[in-house]
Amino acid sequence: MSDLAIRTDGLTWKAGKSFTLDQVDLRVPTGAVYGFLGPNGSGKTTTIRALLGLLGPVGGKVTVLGHDVPTELPRMLAKVGYVPERPHLYQHFTVAQAIEYHAAFHAKWDANWAEHQRQRFGLALDRDLNRLSKGEMGKLMILLALAQRPELLLLDEPTDGLDPVVRRDVLSALVEYVDERKATVFISSHLVHELERICDWVGLMDMGKLVAEMPMGRFKAGVRRLKIAGVAPSPDSAPFTFLAREVRAPGVEEWLVRDWADGNEQWFAAQGATLKEVGALDLEDVFVELLRWARFDRRSA
Amino acid sequence: MNGRIFGVMLRAQARYVAPFLALAILIAVALPLANLQGLDSAAAFRLDRAGLLLAQSSFLAGMYPVLALCTGVFLAVATWLPDVHWRWVYVLTLPIERGRMAALRLATGFTLILPVGLVLWLSGLLAAAVANAPDVVRAYPGALSLRFILAAASGFVVGSLGVLAGRKLWLVPAFFLLLVALNAVGVPLGFRFADLLFLSPLSPLHTLAGQWLLFDV
Lengths: 301, 217
What we know:
Chain A is 34% helix and 31% strand. Chain A is an alpha/beta fold. Chain A is elongated.
């Protein structure tokens, strides 16, 4: 088995004049729960559609579970469970028909598990799909994706718009499955705190570009906001990665840095500056700050 | 696996189009029997029974291709419309080659045409039995229903191509407008095209232009 469940090299796609996926190089380790973050319209859904071969010809190379996309699509899709952002199932089906239809296409379909999960989710077999609530539809889609026993789950905002109870049900079904099967999960969301609880890798998209990709630990732990008093030193020789600075008041600057480690305070003393405060950021702050930095960086370039 | 997929697709499709199929079957029952209209009173009015049967048959002949075309095109639209509505996302993320999926869809469509053709044949047999036609007149329920099935299948293919063409479908009326315009300036390409469309044995619409008579000499 490959070390990478998903690999894209220079993935590029243009939709008219307004939107472009620009040289996206994804590396999703096998067995990871990979959170794909980004603001609305940043290219998350488009990237997922490219992984599934739904976009037609794209630039660059896409490999999913060792299969080339799009030349080996059916073999790849047999191992991938997909939950799209918006419901995609035929609305004239009942729950029973949707399950029967989906099962027929998947050789590894686990009927017992599907039935158990259906009862647990409280989905009545004779309910028409066009009469399901948003939460029930979300449950059905995750049920279909998991009962096919996939090696990789591609989840595009699977809990978006769901109430907290349903969201918890859906996420716990997902976590149980991943725990049992050691499957890889690629989950996109703009709900940062939701991903913080379940992901061990993070990729950050903005304006069609992958602006950061790292283990969650590094994403959360290494980013700090520093408050510096006096004459701020040049960050060129710093033992951490300098991201951004902002002058708060005369003689007071705030820095955003990455790869912060204990003992780095001494570097400021050696530079003759006073480090007043080292602030940890929660994931949402990191997300916002990194986005801001990426955009600033692009504007400067 | 293919058989299972076909079975599931057929059941799903049959449920979806059941009301329309029921209507088509009802019309398929009624059309051959409508040939018998007026036969009871033919003797009373000293009309020729054979002539009456042939006249009724000719009068109804235009209805069969219309029913066949409507059946085929409607089934095609109903087959593909849910995918168009959901932008093909579900069907294209199922683990099956796209060509095989299209072939299975065509197969389910053709299969659903069969019951209508079968009912047309049975109704034609019944009409032929009841008509007590003179020796000069012969009934052709088998040929008529076979022609119906072929024409409906052609309608299904044409309807499918129309749906699959998506936004490019506007090219069809544009093409016809061009033919009309050419005709107006003395270039009768439209008639040649109509001949090609309906009379060429290679055209899927060829079956529509043939004989559709239940009773003939």
